[in-house]
């Protein structure tokens, strides 16, 4: 068995790379392992390639490839390197799928218009530091705050440049983390995005919120609303403009982002602070959930009848359908919705892309405001998490969109 380990290892590497090219699991429970295996591979292919080549050199020197099985294993590794190269090329070449929808919707001059909105001049950063160092660059100890009444979970990090005037009026971005409504950790999600915004003079607020199964819906959205209310009341103390607060989030955070943007000042989700202003000027949901009640389609049965019924809402869909419909952004679209920028990956195995398409179509049919949609070919769920090309493109595209909104807001 020991002699066949190089062949087995090489076969597993090739399978993992192939899963990064196109997820094996497209429906049901296999989508979860397909995501967790293919997601890092699809975004960090250079690291996988370097590790595989280094391992092959070590095994070559050790003589592992001298046998027939060894030569087959080496051949499989070479194929794997080619597959990883394909992934890298796709990732690098995906910029057009972020930029083109912005240009088609906002106009050819959108970048020029967006540039007028940068509060501070960008500094030149060298390299991409580790996640924790990125946070320390922008979040001082005094900028960790409690925004709500629940002391263990209602915390927020305020990202800002140290040279940002505290008496200024910088635009503000609220980042809502994802995690299937059961994790919701503000660290280390959206670090590439928030560091990019903070570097350009924005104030970013990244929150934790109550999660399931310990807590029950609608606690999650109530906390997001509390965070918005806190921002409107206190963000001026950190140099932020309470009159320009945008919201973003990925996955479950994308759902909460969209729902919050479409339910401003809704007393249903603001118990005890019904009079607080929870409106936003723009929303950027990324690979989010927009439909909580449909049970047909890939993965819908597991999502609605298992995750939501048993762990999040804890109520039967058939008896409490309105609860599920009210929690669905697709049923909340409205003519006065704020500008939206929706992003989704075509190869998302956790939340299939048709859900985003349906939401965008519904929003465009009703909203009087701008709606931009970027659909990224070959992108898996959570494609913006790492400092990969797609993570870089996402941060830049979202910043351009929100800066455009900021620059043109007074013209409307």
Secondary structure: helix percent:
40-55%
* Alpha-carbon Rg, integer: 22 Å
What share of residues are in beta strands? 5-15%
Question: Major β-sheet, in short?
Answer: 8 strands, mixed
Protein structure class = alpha/beta
- Arithmetic mean of pLDDT: 92
SSE pattern, N- to C-terminal: HHHHHHHEEEHEHEHEHHEHEH
- The DSSP helix count reads 14
Identify the strand order in the major beta sheet.
Answer: 1-2-4-3-5-6-7-8
| Overall 3D form | globular
Number of strands: 8
The first-to-last residue Cα distance is 71 Å
Write structural notes for this entry:
It is a single chain. The chain has 412 residues and is of the alpha/beta class. Helix content is 45%, strand content 12%. The protein is built from 14 helices and 8 strands. It has an 8-stranded mixed sheet with strand order 1-2-4-3-5-6-7-8, sandwiched between helices. The radius of gyration is 22 Å and the shape is globular. 49% of the residues are buried.
Task: List its traits.
412 residues, alpha/beta, 8-stranded mixed beta sheet, 8 strands, globular
List the helices and strands and how they pair.
Layout lengths: L4 H17 L9 H13 L1 H18 L5 H25 L2 H12 L3 H6 L15 H8 L5 E3 L8 E5 L10 E7 L14 H9 L3 E5 L11 H16 L5 E11 L1 H11 L19 E5 L13 H13 L8 H6 L13 E6 L8 H13 L4 E6 L12 H20 L4
Parallel strand pairs: 3-4, 3-5, 5-6, 6-7, 7-8
Antiparallel strand pairs: 1-2, 2-4
Helix pairs in contact: 1-2, 1-4, 3-4, 5-14, 7-8, 8-14, 9-10
